[in-house]
Structures are given as C-alpha cells and as structure tokens.
Amino acid sequence: MKNLSFPGLPRVLIVDDEDGMREGLRALLQKEGLHVETAGTAEEGVRRVEARLFDIVFLDLQLPGADGLSMLARFRRGTPPADILILTGHGTVANTVEAMRKGAADVIEKPFSIDRIMAVVRRVLETRQLKNELTWLQDRVRELTATELVGLSPAIRDVQTRIDQVAHAPDTTVLVTGQSGTGKELVARCIHERSARRHGPFVAINCAALTEALLEAELFGYEPGAFTGASREGKDGLFAVAAGGTLFLDEIGEMEPTLQAKLLRVLQERTFRRVGGVQDVPADVRIVASTNRDLRAMVQTGGFREDLFYRLNVMTVHVPPLRERAADIPLLSHFFLDQIGRQMGKALSGFTEESMETLCEYTWPGNVRELRNAIEHACIVCPSGMIDEIHLPKFTGGALDGSDEIDRTSLVLDGNDRSIRALESQLVAKVLDDTQWNISRAAAILGINRTTLYNKIRLYELGQRPRAKVVV
C-alpha cells in the first residue's frame, strides 16, 4: 500500500470456507501490493500461522467444525502477533464485544464494500508501522542509554569533559586507562557515539584473548592460502570491518612486540596489509586503545614500544576506580536496579537505608562491573519490593589494617555498673567512633554482622551516623 514502509510486503492470511469470498478478497488485496495467502479451514489457517508471521489475518466467524472466536487466540501467536479482522454474516453486538475482548482489531460484517475493507486494512497497517517505529526508537534509546556514563561526581564529570573534547576530533587516537571493571569500553563507545564516526561500526577486540598469529589475522585479515588452514576465499580483518567507524583495542598492553610494530605502521601510514598480501589497504578508522597497566613503566622496562606509546597517547582518558567516585554509587545502583529489574520482569522499587549503606561503604575492588553483578544478584534473590541487606552478596566490608585497631586501655567502666552489657555498650560506641560510623568496618572489627550491629545500636541507644558536611 502506498506510503507504508514494511520490511518486505505486508503479509495477509484469509481464513474463510467460501471460495468466492477468499478469492475475491485475495484479488483485491494483491492488487494493493500485499502478499496474500488463503486457507479454507481453521486447522489449515493455524498451520500457516505457525509456519510464518502474518501482519493481518481475516478470520471468518463461522467455519466448518470450528468457532472463529474460540480459535482467535491461536491466530494471535507470534511476535509481534497478527491483527485479527473478524468476518461475519451474522454480526451482533455480543459477538463484536466478545471478539474485541479476545483481541480482534475489528469486526467486518458481510457483505462489505471495498472502501470498508481498504479503510480497515490501511488503519491496521498504519498502526503496525507506528508500533514498529516506536520499537525501533525504544531500542535506539536503550542503545544510547547503554553508552552514557552514569554519575555526577567530579571524577566522572572530568571523564565526560574529556570525552566531549576528543569526540570533536574523529581521527585522533585515544588511550583509555583505568583498573579492570571501571568501564573503559563504555568510555570508548561514548567517544564513538558522540563523534562524526557514530554512523560507522564500533568494533572491539581483546588483545589479551588471542595468540599473536590469531590476533594479527583478526586485525589485518589474510589472503587466500596465506597460512595453513587459511580460508580459500581469504578474510577481511577488523581494520576493514571497522572502516568509517572506531576500532577498540582492549588491553593493548598485552600485545606482543612484533605486532606492536605493525600497529605502529598503521597509525603512521594509515594503511595496512593483509597477512600474505602485498598491497596497501587504506585504514579509515579511529583507534581507541585501553589498558589497566602502566604503559609508561612498561616502556622503561622494554615491555612496550616507546614510539607506539607516544602514537597511542595523543589523548588520554583516565577512568577512576569506583572508590574514588563513591558519590555515584547510589545513582549507579538505582540505574542497574531499573535496568536489570525490567529485564527480569520484577517490580523492584529501590533499596533500604541499610542496604544502600552497605553498597556505599564497600571498597569495590571489582569496580562498576562488581557493583552491577551485586545488583543483579540482589535482583535474583529479592522477590519484589525493596532490596535489603539480606539480598546482597556477602561482603567483608574490606580488609582490616592496623588503623582499625582500638586502644583497649581507653574503655573505662563505671564504678556502679560493671556488667557485660555496659562494657559491650562502650565497646560498640568506641568502635563506631573510631571507624567514623562505617557500619561494615565496625561490624568486621567487632566480629558480628551488620544486622546485629544495628540491633545493638538501637538496644544501647547510641544514636545515628553523623551526617556528612555538605561543601558548597
């Protein structure tokens, strides 16, 4: 139909036991450019629906041995389900209401006019097209959301500023540094999405995951018969696949020296050669490399080429560990909760105060990746409502060092009350004060869990955690 765009022709199925009705409707719809199939029985129609997806199903209400209304749900199988248009020669208000209640898009009484049929078909197809466009937009929003750095801390704002700066230079090589799990690939995707290369592909490869020979073949591709086991047709490498876009080289510090030299040539000449090839191929890509190692120190020890380091280090973006942006933990936690909760189909409304304190006090050696895994664990364990401490993984609260030890001579017993209760009350208060009310660390020092510590705080009426001062 004119002005409607579908991936291929819209598919229509006509299920009616009257030959004249089926063929007349088929001819009318095929003339409008639709792909039409027909079935004379409900069983045949169901088989066709199970074999392929249809956009519209015309379903006669009175079929031999079957009631169209009772069969309606079986014709709405598939993703997305077909829109059902009921055909009936005995239209009643009751039938119409029942058909619409079971999911029919419309009820058409026989005999019908061409204008009536075409108006209904156009309306249904236009609605489906709008739904398709909405689905595409929602998917695109999810993609863009997935390439946004979540956080408001000064540390993450610095990263966002660097990304915006380098995004305006679509050919500049970028080196992203930071510990494992901080989100270095996410930073690379942000750079790609905000640059003029966003319409091209984003291709990522982990340099530590492949041997030198395999990594070379993956990056540059190879000619037919270039080595034993090579494909007879040859293969394009990632430099060719990423043409017009961005090539992300993760863990560049693990690349072997020989391959480092070949990568240096690509950065200098903007060309590369396939394995076994003799012709130079243009390399129209932006290189974004990442590492969790100190490349400058590796240069000093000979573990990384100095000339390649300076070629890569044109623009550096350092991603801070999560402990240096602890203010972002609540925002990140709610972001992951919403994301994972929707994926699991769970109605999870937030975090209790105790669970959020646990999340904020933990040192997160695995950084943002570990935080996301912890939230996913909690989403699995928590049936609904709010995430509580019991739903989180068993955190240690961090390793204890000498700074956590207390001065045993500082506890002075009241002469009138030398009970264990009084001693315990003073001990708990002292540890809380020494740890600045870090519940996880205080509980670890006392050798109890956080829930027990909270109970003792209430029992001995020790008050609440002092509120942090806000610096404006």
CATH C-level of the largest domain: Alpha Beta
Mean pLDDT: 84
Q: How many structural domains can be distinguished in the coordinates? A: 4
Any low-confidence stretches, pLDDT <50, length ≥5? Answer: 396-404, 468-472
Strand order of the largest sheet: 2-1-3-6-7
Please tally the β strands and state the result.
Answer: 18
Summing up helix and strand content along with how strands pair, one would put the structural category as alpha/beta
Based on CA atoms alone, the radius of gyration comes out at 33 Å
Architecture of the largest domain, CATH level 2?
3-Layer(aba) Sandwich
Question: How can the largest sheet be summarized?
Answer: 5 strands, parallel
Helix content: 40-55%
Gross morphology is: flat
| Total number of helices | 18
Beta content = 5-15%
CATH fold description of the largest domain: Rossmann fold
Distance separating the two termini:
62 Å
Describe this protein's structure.
The structure is a single chain. With 472 residues, the protein is of the alpha/beta class. It has four domains: 11-140, Response regulator (Rossmann fold); 154-320, 3-Layer(aba) Sandwich (Rossmann fold); 324-391, Helicase, Ruva Protein, domain 3 (Orthogonal Bundle), CATH 1.10.8.60; 402-459, Arc Repressor Mutant, subunit A (Orthogonal Bundle), CATH 1.10.10. The protein is 44% helix and 14% strand. The protein has a five-stranded parallel sheet with strand order 2-1-3-6-7, with helices on both faces. A five-stranded parallel sheet has the order 9-12-15-8-16.
